[in-house]
Amino acid sequence: MILLKGGAKDNIIKLFNINFSGLFRFDIQGGDREIMNLVKKEYITKNILKIRTKTNSNKKYQYIGLLFILPWLIGISVLELFPLLYSFYLSFTEYSIINTPKFIGTENYIHMFTSDPEFYNSLKVTFFYVLIAVPLKISFALLVAILLNFNLKGMSLFRTVFYLPSILGGSIAVAILWRFLFAEQGLINGVLSFLNLPTNNWLGNPDTSLLTISLLTVWQFGSSMVLFLAGLKQVPNELYEAARVDGASRIRIFFSITLPLLTPILLFNIIMQMINAFQEFTAAFVITNGGPLYSTYLYGVMLYENAFKFMKMGYASALSWVLFIIILMFTLLLFKSSKQWVFYQDGRND
Q1: CB atoms within 10 A of CB 104
Q2: Domain-by-domain residue ranges, the chain?
Q3: Which tens digit of pLDDT belongs to each residue from 149-185?
Q4: Least packed by Cβ within 10 Å: which of 98, 275, 297, 303?
């Protein structure tokens, strides 16, 4: 305890702008400077102890938080980050899994762009696949979402049924089923023949094979449909009522109100479906194995064959990084262009 008296109390309060009430008694004369130094030392010491105590308590909670996310950190480091970095290293090596990697610099990339004709063919086929599958899937998902947005009896059952294809996904079993459906003697041609309509060798014809496997992707529209349906529920009904009062038609309402307010969800769906389409593998590999005449030889099939059929793991790693850069460029382009066509209810368009 420090005892002060006289002008020291006023000087200390003025100097430090603090209230020592309850902490000190003022009962000593003279020696203001020395007394002020003592008070300053004791005050700072007490506050530093409080800060240290609070800091130690915060660190304790930080350690607990880190402990809870430790499994996720280990998982992402071992299963994602390390393979990502290691594949980047392998892209500069000659590696066949059974042998040790041999560093060859940029030779894999040079061979890819100058000496591998299948690289450009697979890119061309993949771009066509993306241009077919993504717009069809997004459009069909939006159409179904609009139909399921009506408040009718039993609509929840229909929503569940329409989402089932996404639960089944693009599995091997579904791909095999698709191959039987569109086979030359399959169900689709059987129905067309029964209706006296012309049939087609859907999977054996290079002109229709890519469209046929694209329909498998379109069939899995459930996830995009759910997002569109959620967005439709968020559109204010007052906007529709005002448009009807002004005499706007259903088509005008859709393009002037509904679609602009769905553009944020549309942007998300386009990006996600584009990424999935660029990485498509199962449908082309199981249904057509890249044929006929390489008409369905997607980039994913080429990457798989180089890695596990020809045992060129280093070259396959280079292919995967080129695909990553392509996807990144298209994603950034979509985000950049979104300022021109994506609108938000709060008036933002960025």
Answers
A1: 14
A2: 7-64, 103-341
A3: 888 777 778 778 878 777 776 678 888 989 999 998 8
A4: 98
